[in-house]
Amino acid sequence: MLLDNLVALLPELNKAFFETVYMVGISILVAIIVGLPTGVLLFVTDKGLFLENQLFKNIAGFIVNMIRSVPFIILLIALLPLANLIAGTTIGPTAASVSLSVAAIPFFARIVEQSLREIDKGVIEAAVATGATPWMIIKDVLIPEAKPGIVQGITITIISLVAYSAMAGIVGGGGVGDLAIRFGYYRYDDTVMITTVIILICLVQLIQFGGDKIAKVVDKR
Amino acid sequence: MIEVRKLVKVYETKKGSVTGVEHVSLTVEKGEIYGIVGYSGAGKSSLIRCLNLLEKPTSGEIIIDGVELTSLNKSELRKARLKIGMIFQHFHLVSAKTVSENIAFALKAAGTPKARINERVNELLEMVGLSDKKDVYPAQLSGGQKQRVGIARALANNPSVLLCDEATSALDPSTTRSILALLKKINRELGITIVLITHEMEVVKTICDRMAVMQDGKIIEEGNVYEIFANPQEPLTRDFVQSILQFELPERLLEERDGKLIKIYFEGEIAEQSVISDVFQNFKVRGNILHGKIEYIQDTPLGIFVMKVTGDPDEIDRAIAYIASRTKNLEVIQYAA
């Protein structure tokens, strides 16, 4: 009975799993591509740093905080026009990825900024003293020094995205979390709910484990 | 050559403004090792950090190799910094990069062609004695080795000036000696002007040609290292000099009541002459050396002896007058009753 239930669910589960991977994959990529430079800029424009620019810092900081303060479920709906513009559709995993990406960018940017803040200021100063350009300092000092923190940040962002993606069901995004809500929660099907939750637990554990391993490898301190 | 003119650095804090450097003017000649000593908070760190504009001076001018740094724009300043090396108390190496990558960073900053970088890194590593540590990460190095990497990085682009910000303060005495020896070698062989700040008089004594003493943001005394050691003027300078030349006599000796206790300073050539034996040949006194020390500063001896002279009181006075006439400085510590 239990096994039959699960076997019947397998195709759904399989599809949901890949939807989750798809949505999280796109969003984390966008978060890294846009969030990493944003985080770096938030850091280097801070007071006393080599690209100090209070105006930029304040404006960028404000936008980041603003996006982060909107509850994700509201952001998801509010960004449907944007999803339509970018993905050409307002439903499905691709549309959901747009909102997920927008939510992930400021989240990741702040983590990057925080990791950069942990670098010994003296190391940055020594790089400035050599006469290196800002770009060189970012590329050859800041990013390498913050790498362990950034890798941990990617791990945390992926895990948050997995959790957020459960809400993607609202716009028909699918995914494992959505399966848990639709089949398990709304239909009171404990077997499905527990199975999907277990899958999510395993997924998150795996991501954290992998992230920790990579962070350790890149950490030369 | 480095010229600092009327340098002022004021820090704005929430509690009001704090003056770090107050109207400091100084000149460092080409090829010289110039030391600035002072206790922490004296402003010496602000001063050295103003020399390559890591701190922007509030007012005043910094002229290095004929270029007035405060008037430069950002890219001109970067170019000027290529020729001003700097090393730090805590080394400040990039921990995620190997020794050779750390050095290569400075070369890349100067736009050195890729093919030349590896060659130059090898040269530098050989100069600082770390050829075998090329691919090692800083975390695996000792403090002295890290500072050697710092020195190699600072010298990568053949700078004319090397700034040392408490470069040996985090090192143990024997490592300090080896780093100082390396700095001296660099100064002599490459003709690089070195400016260093320290709170250790030992460092100044070992390698500096000229020195300045800083207190409350001002330079209170400046001059040739030997002259300052032999003849300190300000109380703080005397404190610093005493940290090297100090010695204390046991109370017991000061309480003895026969003869006179004199402290004699021998400077330069006099220290190598036989002043003391001449005294005993010419005067009927007996002498007993209770304490003594000869320091060699810039290869010139500076001796201090404490001697008890006994015998006929008049003869003692004559002997003391004779010693005083032949040495620069004589101090009668205590008169016998």
From TrEMBL, chain A:
Gene3D superfamilies: MetI-like (1.10.3720.10). One of its GO terms (cellular component) is plasma membrane. CDD domains: TM_PBP2. Pfam families: BPD_transp_1. The keyword Transmembrane helix applies. SUPFAM superfamilies: MetI-like. Residues 17-209 form the ABC transmembrane type-1 domain. GO terms for biological process: D-methionine transmembrane transport. It is found in: Cell membrane. The chain crosses the membrane at residues 20-43, 55-79, 85-109, 149-171, 191-211. Keywords: Cell membrane, Membrane, Transmembrane, Transmembrane helix, Transport. It is a multi-pass membrane protein. NCBIfam families: PRK10782.1. Belongs to the binding-protein-dependent transport system permease family. CysTW subfamily. This is ABC transporter permease. It comes from Mesobacillus subterraneus.
Automatic annotation (TrEMBL), chain B:
This is Methionine ABC transporter ATP-binding protein. Pfam families: ABC_tran (PF00005), NIL (PF09383). SUPFAM superfamilies: ACT-like, P-loop containing nucleoside triphosphate hydrolases. Belongs to the ABC transporter superfamily. It comes from Mesobacillus subterraneus. The keyword Nucleotide-binding applies. Keywords: Amino-acid transport, ATP-binding, Cell membrane, Membrane, Nucleotide-binding, Translocase, Transport. One of its GO terms (biological process) is amino acid transport. Residues 2-241 form the ABC transporter domain. One of its GO terms (cellular component) is plasma membrane. GO terms for molecular function: ATP binding; ATP hydrolysis activity. It comes from the Bacteria.
